[in-house]
Protein backbone atom coordinates (compact mmCIF):
# COMPACT_ATOMS: atom_id res chain seq x y z
CA UNK A 1 0.00 0.00 0.00
CA UNK A 2 1.27 3.44 -0.85
CA UNK A 3 2.03 5.60 2.19
CA UNK A 4 -0.57 8.08 3.42
CA UNK A 5 1.75 10.99 2.71
CA UNK A 6 2.55 10.05 -0.88
CA UNK A 7 -1.01 8.86 -1.51
CA UNK A 8 -2.25 12.30 -0.42
CA UNK A 9 -0.23 14.26 -2.99
CA UNK A 10 -1.84 15.87 -6.01
CA UNK A 11 0.32 15.38 -9.13
CA UNK A 12 1.80 18.54 -10.65
CA UNK A 13 -0.84 19.93 -13.05
CA UNK A 14 1.81 21.64 -15.14
CA UNK A 15 3.90 18.46 -15.54
CA UNK A 16 0.80 16.37 -16.35
CA UNK A 17 -0.37 18.83 -18.99
CA UNK A 18 3.05 18.69 -20.60
CA UNK A 19 2.65 14.91 -21.04
CA UNK A 20 -0.79 15.28 -22.62
CA UNK A 21 0.38 17.95 -25.06
CA UNK A 22 3.37 15.78 -26.00
CA UNK A 23 1.08 12.91 -26.98
CA UNK A 24 -1.24 15.22 -28.96
CA UNK A 25 1.75 16.60 -30.87
CA UNK A 26 2.93 13.04 -31.62
CA UNK A 27 -0.46 12.40 -33.21
CA UNK A 28 0.25 15.34 -35.50
CA UNK A 29 -2.12 17.81 -33.81
CA UNK A 30 -1.00 21.43 -34.13
CA UNK A 31 -1.11 22.48 -30.46
CA UNK A 32 -0.19 26.06 -29.56
CA UNK A 33 1.57 25.87 -26.22
CA UNK A 34 0.81 28.82 -23.96
CA UNK A 35 1.37 26.70 -20.88
CA UNK A 36 5.14 26.45 -20.80
CA UNK A 37 7.05 27.73 -17.77
CA UNK A 38 10.37 28.14 -19.54
CA UNK A 39 11.77 30.66 -22.01
CA UNK A 40 11.81 29.57 -25.67
CA UNK A 41 15.45 30.70 -25.89
CA UNK A 42 18.24 28.15 -25.93
CA UNK A 43 20.94 28.03 -23.27
CA UNK A 44 23.67 30.53 -24.31
CA UNK A 45 26.78 29.16 -26.02
CA UNK A 46 29.30 30.25 -23.36
CA UNK A 47 27.35 28.35 -20.69
CA UNK A 48 27.22 25.18 -22.82
CA UNK A 49 30.94 25.53 -23.55
CA UNK A 50 31.75 25.79 -19.84
CA UNK A 51 29.89 22.51 -19.31
CA UNK A 52 31.72 20.82 -22.19
CA UNK A 53 35.05 22.05 -20.80
CA UNK A 54 34.15 20.64 -17.39
CA UNK A 55 33.34 17.25 -18.88
CA UNK A 56 36.57 17.28 -20.91
CA UNK A 57 38.45 18.05 -17.70
CA UNK A 58 36.58 15.08 -16.15
CA UNK A 59 34.85 17.18 -13.55
CA UNK A 60 32.51 14.25 -13.31
CA UNK A 61 33.06 12.93 -9.80
CA UNK A 62 31.15 13.36 -6.56
CA UNK A 63 31.91 16.71 -4.94
CA UNK A 64 30.86 18.34 -1.66
CA UNK A 65 27.10 17.93 -1.09
CA UNK A 66 26.58 21.70 -0.99
CA UNK A 67 28.42 22.24 -4.29
CA UNK A 68 31.92 23.03 -5.50
CA UNK A 69 33.47 25.94 -3.57
CA UNK A 70 33.91 27.93 -6.82
CA UNK A 71 30.16 27.89 -7.50
CA UNK A 72 29.25 28.72 -3.93
CA UNK A 73 31.65 31.67 -4.13
CA UNK A 74 30.07 32.77 -7.43
CA UNK A 75 26.62 32.60 -5.79
CA UNK A 76 27.88 34.71 -2.88
CA UNK A 77 29.19 37.29 -5.39
CA UNK A 78 25.84 37.31 -7.19
CA UNK A 79 23.85 37.74 -3.96
CA UNK A 80 26.08 40.64 -2.94
CA UNK A 81 26.02 42.30 -6.39
CA UNK A 82 22.33 41.88 -7.22
CA UNK A 83 20.64 41.74 -3.83
CA UNK A 84 22.98 43.48 -1.38
CA UNK A 85 23.17 40.24 0.63
CA UNK A 86 26.31 39.00 2.33
CA UNK A 87 26.66 35.24 2.63
CA UNK A 88 29.66 32.99 3.18
CA UNK A 89 30.03 29.92 0.92
CA UNK A 90 29.12 27.60 3.84
CA UNK A 91 25.66 29.22 3.92
CA UNK A 92 24.96 28.14 0.34
CA UNK A 93 23.66 24.74 -0.72
CA UNK A 94 23.51 24.03 -4.46
CA UNK A 95 20.61 21.72 -5.33
CA UNK A 96 18.98 19.89 -8.21
CA UNK A 97 16.94 22.90 -9.30
CA UNK A 98 15.23 25.51 -7.17
CA UNK A 99 12.60 22.85 -6.70
CA UNK A 100 14.88 20.74 -4.54
CA UNK A 101 16.18 23.86 -2.81
CA UNK A 102 12.59 24.74 -1.90
CA UNK A 103 11.88 21.27 -0.63
CA UNK A 104 15.05 21.38 1.48
CA UNK A 105 13.98 24.74 2.91
CA UNK A 106 10.43 23.62 3.70
CA UNK A 107 11.70 20.47 5.38
CA UNK A 108 14.36 22.35 7.31
CA UNK A 109 11.87 24.59 9.13
CA UNK A 110 8.64 22.56 9.33
CA UNK A 111 7.83 20.02 12.03
CA UNK A 112 4.92 17.61 11.52
CA UNK A 113 1.71 19.49 12.30
CA UNK A 114 3.28 22.93 11.72
CA UNK A 115 1.50 25.39 9.46
CA UNK A 116 3.07 27.06 6.43
CA UNK A 117 1.36 30.10 4.94
CA UNK A 118 1.12 30.21 1.15
CA UNK A 119 -0.28 33.34 -0.52
CA UNK A 120 -2.52 32.35 -3.42
CA UNK A 121 -2.60 32.18 -6.38
CA UNK A 122 0.62 30.27 -5.73
CA UNK A 123 2.92 27.86 -7.51
CA UNK A 124 1.60 24.30 -7.75
CA UNK A 125 4.33 22.58 -5.71
CA UNK A 126 4.27 24.64 -2.50
CA UNK A 127 1.17 23.03 -1.03
CA UNK A 128 2.36 19.54 -1.90
CA UNK A 129 5.84 20.14 -0.48
CA UNK A 130 4.35 21.24 2.82
CA UNK A 131 2.11 18.16 2.87
CA UNK A 132 5.10 15.93 2.06
CA UNK A 133 6.92 16.97 5.22
CA UNK A 134 3.81 16.46 7.36
CA UNK A 135 3.03 20.17 7.58
CA UNK A 136 -0.30 21.92 7.03
CA UNK A 137 -0.54 24.37 4.11
CA UNK A 138 -2.54 27.48 4.99
CA UNK A 139 -3.55 29.28 1.79
CA UNK A 140 -4.20 33.01 2.09
CA UNK A 141 -5.68 34.69 -1.01
CA UNK A 142 -3.94 37.77 -2.36
CA UNK A 143 -5.86 40.98 -3.08
CA UNK A 144 -7.65 41.44 -6.41
CA UNK A 145 -4.53 42.98 -7.96
CA UNK A 146 -2.56 39.88 -6.84
CA UNK A 147 -0.59 41.86 -4.26
CA UNK A 148 -0.08 40.33 -0.80
CA UNK A 149 -2.95 40.81 1.61
CA UNK A 150 -0.73 41.73 4.53
CA UNK A 151 -3.56 41.94 7.07
CA UNK A 152 -4.93 38.54 6.06
CA UNK A 153 -1.49 36.94 6.30
CA UNK A 154 -0.98 38.46 9.74
CA UNK A 155 -4.37 37.13 10.81
CA UNK A 156 -3.46 33.65 9.54
CA UNK A 157 -0.37 33.37 11.77
CA UNK A 158 -0.91 31.05 14.75
CA UNK A 159 1.41 29.55 17.32
CA UNK A 160 1.82 26.63 14.91
CA UNK A 161 3.04 28.76 12.01
CA UNK A 162 6.55 27.78 10.93
CA UNK A 163 6.99 29.78 7.73
CA UNK A 164 5.52 31.93 4.97
CA UNK A 165 6.44 31.22 1.36
CA UNK A 166 6.87 34.39 -0.67
CA UNK A 167 7.35 34.17 -4.44
CA UNK A 168 8.08 37.47 -6.17
CA UNK A 169 8.04 37.95 -9.16
CA UNK A 170 5.21 35.48 -8.94
CA UNK A 171 4.26 32.37 -10.79
CA UNK A 172 1.39 32.29 -11.80
CA UNK A 173 0.29 35.94 -11.50
CA UNK A 174 3.36 37.86 -12.66
CA UNK A 175 2.95 40.19 -9.66
CA UNK A 176 6.00 41.77 -8.07
CA UNK A 177 5.26 42.43 -4.42
CA UNK A 178 5.71 46.00 -3.25
CA UNK A 179 8.56 46.97 -0.96
CA UNK A 180 6.03 47.94 1.71
CA UNK A 181 4.36 44.56 1.70
CA UNK A 182 7.70 42.74 1.78
CA UNK A 183 8.79 44.94 4.68
CA UNK A 184 5.55 44.00 6.45
CA UNK A 185 6.32 40.31 5.86
CA UNK A 186 9.84 40.74 7.19
CA UNK A 187 8.55 42.55 10.30
CA UNK A 188 5.93 39.86 10.85
CA UNK A 189 8.48 37.05 10.55
CA UNK A 190 10.79 38.72 13.05
CA UNK A 191 7.98 39.57 15.49
CA UNK A 192 6.52 36.04 15.46
CA UNK A 193 9.88 34.31 15.06
CA UNK A 194 8.87 32.43 11.92
CA UNK A 195 10.70 31.94 8.64
CA UNK A 196 10.22 33.41 5.21
CA UNK A 197 11.06 31.12 2.34
CA UNK A 198 11.74 33.65 -0.42
CA UNK A 199 11.46 32.03 -3.84
CA UNK A 200 13.27 34.51 -6.10
CA UNK A 201 13.65 32.29 -9.17
CA UNK A 202 12.06 34.97 -11.44
CA UNK A 203 14.01 37.91 -10.00
CA UNK A 204 15.63 38.89 -13.31
CA UNK A 205 12.28 39.01 -15.07
CA UNK A 206 11.03 42.37 -13.81
CA UNK A 207 9.62 44.80 -16.35
CA UNK A 208 9.01 48.48 -16.94
CA UNK A 209 11.05 49.83 -14.05
CA UNK A 210 9.50 47.45 -11.51
CA UNK A 211 12.11 46.42 -9.01
CA UNK A 212 12.58 43.10 -7.29
CA UNK A 213 13.47 43.32 -3.58
CA UNK A 214 14.98 40.52 -1.58
CA UNK A 215 13.23 40.18 1.80
CA UNK A 216 16.44 39.00 3.44
CA UNK A 217 18.05 42.35 2.63
CA UNK A 218 15.48 44.40 4.49
CA UNK A 219 17.13 44.14 7.93
CA UNK A 220 19.70 42.00 9.77
CA UNK A 221 16.80 40.39 11.66
CA UNK A 222 14.96 39.64 8.41
CA UNK A 223 18.16 38.01 7.10
CA UNK A 224 18.19 35.65 10.10
CA UNK A 225 14.56 34.69 9.38
CA UNK A 226 14.79 34.17 5.62
CA UNK A 227 15.91 31.36 3.37
CA UNK A 228 16.57 32.70 -0.13
CA UNK A 229 15.80 30.36 -3.02
CA UNK A 230 17.13 31.01 -6.49
CA UNK A 231 18.56 29.15 -9.47
CA UNK A 232 19.68 29.12 -13.07
CA UNK A 233 16.52 27.89 -14.79
CA UNK A 234 14.57 30.99 -15.71
CA UNK A 235 17.19 33.72 -16.09
CA UNK A 236 19.90 31.74 -17.89
CA UNK A 237 17.60 29.39 -19.82
CA UNK A 238 18.94 26.38 -17.97
CA UNK A 239 15.67 24.69 -17.03
CA UNK A 240 16.78 21.17 -17.93
CA UNK A 241 20.16 21.53 -16.26
CA UNK A 242 18.58 21.37 -12.81
CA UNK A 243 20.63 23.81 -10.80
CA UNK A 244 19.28 25.94 -7.96
CA UNK A 245 20.35 26.90 -4.47
CA UNK A 246 19.45 28.01 -0.97
CA UNK A 247 21.17 30.83 0.87
CA UNK A 248 20.33 30.38 4.53
CA UNK A 249 21.21 31.83 7.91
CA UNK A 250 24.06 29.92 9.53
CA UNK A 251 21.85 28.14 12.06
CA UNK A 252 19.91 26.46 9.20
CA UNK A 253 22.59 25.98 6.53
CA UNK A 254 24.22 22.94 8.13
CA UNK A 255 20.88 21.14 8.48
CA UNK A 256 19.97 21.81 4.85
CA UNK A 257 23.33 20.42 3.80
CA UNK A 258 22.85 17.27 5.93
CA UNK A 259 19.35 16.76 4.54
CA UNK A 260 20.57 16.96 0.97
CA UNK A 261 23.48 14.67 1.83
CA UNK A 262 20.94 11.91 2.45
CA UNK A 263 18.67 12.75 -0.48
CA UNK A 264 20.80 13.35 -3.59
CA UNK A 265 24.34 14.33 -2.49
CA UNK A 266 25.73 17.04 -4.78
CA UNK A 267 23.83 18.26 -7.83
CA UNK A 268 25.49 17.32 -11.16
CA UNK A 269 29.13 18.33 -10.96
CA UNK A 270 29.79 19.54 -14.52
CA UNK A 271 26.55 21.55 -14.50
CA UNK A 272 27.90 23.46 -11.54
CA UNK A 273 30.79 24.74 -13.69
CA UNK A 274 28.32 25.93 -16.31
CA UNK A 275 26.40 27.71 -13.55
CA UNK A 276 29.53 29.66 -12.60
CA UNK A 277 29.78 30.89 -16.19
CA UNK A 278 26.09 31.86 -16.15
CA UNK A 279 26.36 33.83 -12.93
CA UNK A 280 29.63 35.56 -13.82
CA UNK A 281 29.03 36.28 -17.53
CA UNK A 282 25.36 35.70 -18.29
CA UNK A 283 23.94 39.17 -17.73
CA UNK A 284 23.97 40.68 -21.28
CA UNK A 285 21.84 37.86 -22.69
CA UNK A 286 19.44 38.08 -19.75
CA UNK A 287 18.85 41.74 -20.60
CA UNK A 288 18.10 40.93 -24.26
CA UNK A 289 15.60 38.30 -23.19
CA UNK A 290 13.92 40.66 -20.75
CA UNK A 291 13.43 43.24 -23.54
CA UNK A 292 11.72 40.61 -25.67
CA UNK A 293 9.50 39.52 -22.79
CA UNK A 294 8.36 43.11 -22.28
CA UNK A 295 7.19 43.16 -25.92
CA UNK A 296 5.39 39.86 -25.52
CA UNK A 297 3.83 40.84 -22.22
CA UNK A 298 2.51 44.10 -23.66
CA UNK A 299 1.05 42.36 -26.69
CA UNK A 300 -0.50 39.48 -24.73
CA UNK A 301 -1.89 41.74 -22.02
CA UNK A 302 -3.39 44.10 -24.59
CA UNK A 303 -5.09 41.22 -26.43
CA UNK A 304 -6.38 39.43 -23.34
CA UNK A 305 -7.69 42.52 -21.60
CA UNK A 306 -9.71 43.37 -24.73
CA UNK A 307 -11.41 39.97 -24.85
CA UNK A 308 -15.11 40.13 -24.02
CA UNK A 309 -15.96 39.44 -20.36
CA UNK A 310 -12.34 38.77 -19.43
CA UNK A 311 -10.50 40.83 -16.85
CA UNK A 312 -6.76 40.80 -16.34
CA UNK A 313 -4.22 42.52 -14.08
CA UNK A 314 -1.14 43.71 -15.93
CA UNK A 315 1.80 41.60 -14.73
CA UNK A 316 5.06 43.31 -13.77
CA UNK A 317 7.31 40.27 -14.01
CA UNK A 318 7.87 36.54 -14.63
CA UNK A 319 6.26 35.44 -17.92
CA UNK A 320 2.63 34.76 -17.10
CA UNK A 321 -0.78 36.41 -17.36
CA UNK A 322 -3.69 35.33 -15.18
CA UNK A 323 -6.94 36.47 -16.76
CA UNK A 324 -10.24 35.91 -14.97
CA UNK A 325 -12.55 33.96 -17.28
CA UNK A 326 -15.15 33.02 -14.67
CA UNK A 327 -17.91 34.91 -16.56
CA UNK A 328 -17.89 31.96 -18.97
CA UNK A 329 -18.39 29.29 -16.30
CA UNK A 330 -21.79 27.67 -16.71
CA UNK A 331 -21.80 28.37 -20.46
CA UNK A 332 -21.90 25.57 -23.02
CA UNK A 333 -19.99 24.35 -26.05
CA UNK A 334 -22.58 22.05 -27.65
CA UNK A 335 -23.62 19.75 -24.82
CA UNK A 336 -20.49 20.37 -22.85
CA UNK A 337 -20.88 22.70 -19.84
CA UNK A 338 -17.76 24.60 -18.79
CA UNK A 339 -18.01 24.38 -15.04
CA UNK A 340 -14.60 25.62 -13.92
CA UNK A 341 -11.04 26.47 -14.97
CA UNK A 342 -10.13 22.79 -15.41
CA UNK A 343 -13.03 22.28 -17.84
CA UNK A 344 -12.10 25.50 -19.60
CA UNK A 345 -8.48 24.51 -20.20
CA UNK A 346 -9.56 21.02 -21.32
CA UNK A 347 -12.05 22.60 -23.74
CA UNK A 348 -9.39 24.96 -25.10
CA UNK A 349 -6.93 22.11 -25.57
CA UNK A 350 -9.27 19.50 -27.01
CA UNK A 351 -11.40 21.69 -29.25
CA UNK A 352 -9.14 24.62 -30.08
CA UNK A 353 -5.72 23.02 -29.60
CA UNK A 354 -4.34 25.73 -27.38
CA UNK A 355 -2.73 24.77 -24.07
CA UNK A 356 -3.04 26.92 -20.93
CA UNK A 357 -2.95 25.89 -17.28
CA UNK A 358 -6.19 25.99 -15.25
CA UNK A 359 -6.06 28.63 -12.50
CA UNK A 360 -7.57 26.04 -10.16
CA UNK A 361 -4.18 24.31 -10.08
CA UNK A 362 -2.79 27.48 -8.48
CA UNK A 363 -5.76 27.91 -6.12
CA UNK A 364 -7.22 30.62 -8.32
CA UNK A 365 -10.43 28.98 -9.51
CA UNK A 366 -11.75 31.74 -11.80
CA UNK A 367 -8.63 32.10 -13.93
CA UNK A 368 -6.32 30.59 -16.53
CA UNK A 369 -2.55 30.90 -16.58
CA UNK A 370 -1.26 31.98 -19.96
CA UNK A 371 2.53 31.86 -20.45
CA UNK A 372 4.07 34.23 -23.00
CA UNK A 373 7.21 32.15 -23.30
CA UNK A 374 6.51 31.17 -26.88
CA UNK A 375 7.32 33.27 -29.98
CA UNK A 376 5.18 36.28 -30.89
CA UNK A 377 3.61 34.34 -33.77
CA UNK A 378 2.67 31.47 -31.49
CA UNK A 379 1.32 33.84 -28.84
CA UNK A 380 -0.82 35.50 -31.52
CA UNK A 381 -2.07 32.17 -32.86
CA UNK A 382 -2.85 30.94 -29.34
CA UNK A 383 -4.71 34.10 -28.33
CA UNK A 384 -6.71 34.02 -31.58
CA UNK A 385 -7.82 30.52 -30.67
CA UNK A 386 -8.72 31.45 -27.10
CA UNK A 387 -10.76 34.41 -28.34
CA UNK A 388 -12.60 32.22 -30.83
CA UNK A 389 -13.20 29.51 -28.21
CA UNK A 390 -14.65 31.94 -25.68
CA UNK A 391 -16.91 33.52 -28.30
CA UNK A 392 -18.27 30.08 -29.17
CA UNK A 393 -19.57 29.49 -25.63
CA UNK A 394 -23.35 29.91 -25.28
CA UNK A 395 -25.94 29.95 -22.48
C1 LIG B 1 7.80 29.72 -8.63
C2 LIG B 1 8.75 28.64 -9.01
N1 LIG B 1 9.65 28.24 -8.11
C3 LIG B 1 10.53 27.27 -8.39
C4 LIG B 1 10.53 26.65 -9.60
C5 LIG B 1 11.52 25.54 -9.85
O1 LIG B 1 12.56 25.94 -10.63
P1 LIG B 1 13.75 24.93 -11.03
O2 LIG B 1 13.60 24.68 -12.49
O3 LIG B 1 15.01 25.64 -10.71
O4 LIG B 1 13.59 23.70 -10.21
C6 LIG B 1 9.62 27.04 -10.58
C7 LIG B 1 9.58 26.36 -11.90
O5 LIG B 1 8.66 26.45 -12.65
C8 LIG B 1 8.71 28.07 -10.28
O6 LIG B 1 7.82 28.50 -11.19
- The amount of beta strand, in percent, is 5-15%
Number of alpha- plus pi-helical segments: 14
Can you tell me the CATH superfamily of the largest domain? Answer: Type I PLP-dependent aspartate aminotransferase-like (Major domain)
Extended strand count: 14
- Biggest sheet descriptor: 7 strands, mixed
The third-level CATH topology of the largest domain is Aspartate Aminotransferase, domain 2
Outline the fold blueprint.
Elements: H1 4-7, H2 13-26, E1 32-33, H3 45-56, H4 69-83, E2 92-95, H5 97-109, E3 115-120, H6 124-132, E4 136-141, H7 150-156, E5 161-167, H8 179-192, E6 195-199, H9 220-224, E7 226-231, E8 244-247, H10 250-263, H11 269-281, H12 283-305, E9 320-321, E10 332-333, E11 336-337, H13 341-352, E12 354-355, E13 357-358, E14 368-371, H14 376-391
Parallel strand pairs: 1-12, 3-4, 3-5, 5-6, 6-7
Antiparallel strand pairs: 2-8, 7-8, 9-14, 10-11, 13-14
Helix pairs in contact: 3-11, 4-11, 5-6, 5-10, 12-14, 13-14
Pyridoxal-5'-phosphate is lined by residues 37, 97-99, 123, 167, 171, 199, 201, 231, 233, 239, 244.
